[in-house]
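Researcher: Next sequence.
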Amino acid sequence: MADGAEVAAQGDVPPPSIMAPRRLIISTLLGLAALMAVVGLVGYFFRAPLLRVSRLFVESLGGVGVAVGFYIPDAFTVPLPNDVATVLGLAGGMGFLEVVLW
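Model: Next structure:
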């Protein structure tokens, strides 16, 4: 059985580490760029329906909807952040201060 010194002496090169800093930085930046591209494309192509849903959200639920939109993600494990309620309120016509106070 060969120990580490004998393996290195034989000229075997260890495989590159998955945790190499350069690889982590590049993969993180590529992932963020892909996420931003997808969100940008959804916003560009679905702008009118998103604004329509936002207005409907504010007209039907108002500030209470924003408050519930903050409560549910904080109280339960759901895959939506509470920023969704903030964006729906702002895009639906509520003022910034009104959204923040709710």
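Model: The radius of gyration is 24 Å. DSSP finds five helices and no strands in the chain.
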